[in-house]
Specification:
- Among the domains are: about 90 residues, MutS, DNA mismatch repair protein, domain I (3-Layer(aba) Sandwich); about 60 residues, DNA polymerase, domain 1 (Orthogonal Bundle); about 100 residues, DNA polymerase, Y-family, little finger domain (Dna Ligase, domain 1, 2-Layer Sandwich), CATH 3.30.1490; about 150 residues, no CATH class.
- By secondary structure, it is an alpha+beta fold.
- The protein has a six-stranded mixed sheet with strand order 7-8-1-10-11-9. It has a four-stranded antiparallel sheet with strand order 12-15-13-14, with helices on one face.
- The radius of gyration is 33 Å and the shape is globular.
- Helix 13 crosses helix 14 and helix 18 crosses helix 19.
- The protein contains 21 helices and 19 strands.
């Protein structure tokens, strides 16, 4: 029976973590991995966005070069990285589409990307702002949604690449007999043969399955994809790279070494530049050459036993790396902008605006999907004195509405750049990133910091009242004349301020108030700013309890008792207080004078 798309094949599948672990661990000896790439993805995305036929030659351009070229343009000799003047000579009918950009008008960021006229009709030299991949990321996520409906284990390995562990799904087809004896696409490394082992049969079924998935992608979201299938993750990626456009390639175990031999060392996924250069200096450029040397020789060349072992295994097709879903906590967003050299902060700020706008959009999109925001901002610039790049990370609090992300990100960025003013100019490149993502605790308050802080303080005040019998200090329900400390439009809380008995009330001017938190005198006009300071400090203590300056505070009632003492608030016990027995030879302490509150001071009868 020929493998087809069953009614439930692309139905939404939801797997629990335990189910995924079961799928990942079963039948470890026989695995089927697949890799899918959307070849010429950016050009395809621009054709779809502008409703152009894919038969029309088209190239996505940026900074005067072809960034991505579709199949129709490739047939005319246009290639990626070609200057647009050469592309026009090679194909006079080619459509050149500018990548989506942020425009900067009078140093004010405009989050609206280019219009049709900007992308197609306006000359490229006019558009020198920051390009954004927001639209393209959204399109690639649409492809990912289709893959997740057909497969349990999927990993986004690159911007235009997904890797899948389809062992579970393939074995299901195998047991039901939903396949035919036919290789789909190209079998790399040798002539096409009838599958002889169970592993080869499963790989053959995997190729048939991925063909059906890619047909679904083409019919649903109009993207042509190519794929690779093999028995481990690395080989599936190599097979995908070797596949022709809009086709498939499979690597089976008996042909593995023959497939790898003619390849360059740079064809190995995840190999770094330093390793390639070290092997090149030793005279090794192909995988066949490296296959002929042993581990001892490799170690002497690379000066690192772990790296040598890694290379020794990879060039022989050995790989045990599983498909791992991306850990969102390790998510990082990295952006960079190159521009004509500038020598002053005003010109630099215009480029910073474009970069920050793009970052805000990406963080906002990620929050919509996963309810997570970054806790660290990373700024990168070139130090002209040290002749090297400098990278600095700063803490940032984005527990705000998405519309308010721009201001704090720009403020932190400019603070870092201001610190390097004596070394940064002339400046032609700025990098910006976000990392250390965490779940946002303010979902129910819609990023309302004031409401969040008010709720936290109210809970703390209620805990004090329950244990000590003290009335709620921060409640706005105690008195008609009393407003919450966190009501920015209200007057200061009359019941929450108390003077020491040693203070002469006649010396206090009516223009000053005493803060119940820190016991400092403040001007009435500065009260709101002073209250905001305490709100921010208490919120910081709540979110970062391990800071050194908060070590003495905790969540126990003993700590609450210490907080009360610091605020000069004496708990009123509900039960009658027992009088302590007087000690011999010691005089009984005189009772303290009652505190004078603001009500009594300002409203004397």
């Amino acid at each position: 029976m020929v493998l087809g798309i069953h009614p439930q094949f692309f139905a939404e599948k939801v797997y629990s973590d335990s189910e995924k672990n079961t799928i990942r661990n079963r039948d470890r000896d026989i695995k089927v991995f697949a890799c899918i790439q959307a070849d010429t993805f950016f050009a395809q995305a621009d054709s779809n966005k502008l409703a152009f036929s894919h038969s029309i030659p088209l190239a996505s351009i940026d900074n005067g070069f072809c960034f991505s070229v579709n199949y129709a343009a490739l047939r005319h000799g246009v290639c990626r990285g070609m200057p647009i003047d050469q592309a026009k000579k090679a194909c006079p009918t080619i459509v050149l589409v500018q990548l989506d950009n942020f425009k900067i008008l009078q140093n004010i960021p405009n989050n609206i990307v280019n219009t049709f006229d900007d992308q197609v009709k306006v000359p490229n030299s006019v558009l020198k702002d920051k390009y954004t991949l927001q639209y393209y990321r959204g399109e690639w996520d649409r492809i990912g949604q289709i893959l997740r409906k057909a497969c349990a284990l999927i990993e986004k390995t690159e911007f235009e690449e997904f890797c899948l562990d389809i062992t579970y799904e393939v074995q299901d087809f195998y047991k039901k007999g939903n396949y035919n004896i036919e290789w789909r696409g190209k079998l790399l490394g040798g002539e096409e043969i009838l599958p002889e082992t169970e592993q080869e049969i499963l790989l053959m079924i995997g190729a048939q399955m991925m063909e059906r998935i890619c047909l679904e992608i083409k019919a649903t979201v109009k993207y042509n994809c190519k794929g690779g299938i093999s028995y481990n993750k690395m080989l599936s990626r190599i097979a995908c790279d070797q596949a022709k456009s809009d086709s498939f390639a499979t690597i089976i175990k008996r042909y593995t070494l023959d497939v790898l031999k003619p390849l360059s060392i740079s064809n190995l996924p995840n190999i770094n530049k330093q390793t390639i250069e070290a092997l090149a200096r030793a005279g090794y450029g192909t995988l066949e050459q490296v296959q002929n040397i042993d581990l001892t020789q490799l170690t002497s060349i690379l000066k690192d036993q772990k790296v040598a072992q890694w290379i020794h295994d990879k060039v022989r097709g050995v790989d045990d790396e599983p498909i791992e879903e991306n850990d969102l906590r390790n998510k990082s967003i990295i952006l960079q902008k190159n521009f004509a050299p500038v020598n002053n902060l005003i010109s630099l700020e215009a480029n910073v605006n474009a970069l920050v706008s793009d970052l805000c959009q990406k963080i906002g999109t990620f929050y919509d999907q996963h309810a997570m925001v970054p806790k660290m901002l990373v700024v990168k610039f070139f130090d002209n004195i040290l002749d090297s790049y400098r990278v600095k990370g700063v803490q940032i609090d984005l527990r705000k509405r998405k519309e308010e992300f721009f201001k704090p990100i720009k403020q932190k960025t400019m603070e870092v750049l201001n610190e390097g003013l004596d070394v940064i100019f002339p400046c032609s490149n700025i990098g910006l990133g976000a990392k250390h993502f965490a779940k946002n605790e303010l979902d129910s308050y819609e990023f309302d910091l004031v409401s969040y802080a008010k709720s936290k303080h109210k809970e703390k005040a209620q805990a004090k009242e329950k244990y000590f019998g003290v009335s709620e200090i921060f409640s706005d329900e105690n008195s008609e004349n009393s407003k919450s400390l966190f009501d920015r439009d209200g007057a200061s809380t009359s019941t929450s301020f108390a003077f020491d008995s040693t203070m002469d009330s006649s010396s206090i001017s009516s223009k000053y108030l005493k803060c119940a938190k820190c016991q400092q005198l403040i001007r009435e006009e500065n009260q709101k700013d002073h209250d905001d300071f305490h709100i921010a400090e208490d919120l910081d203590k709540e979110l970062n309890p391990n800071k050194k300056k908060y070590k003495r505070f905790g969540s126990s009632f003993e700590d609450l008792k210490g907080d009360l003492a610091a605020e000069n608030i004496k708990p009123e016990l509900k039960k009658v207080k027992k009088e302590p027995l007087p000690s011999k030879g010691k005089k009984k302490k005189e009772p303290e004078q009652p505190s004078v509150t603001l009500d009594k001071f300002f409203f004397k009868k």
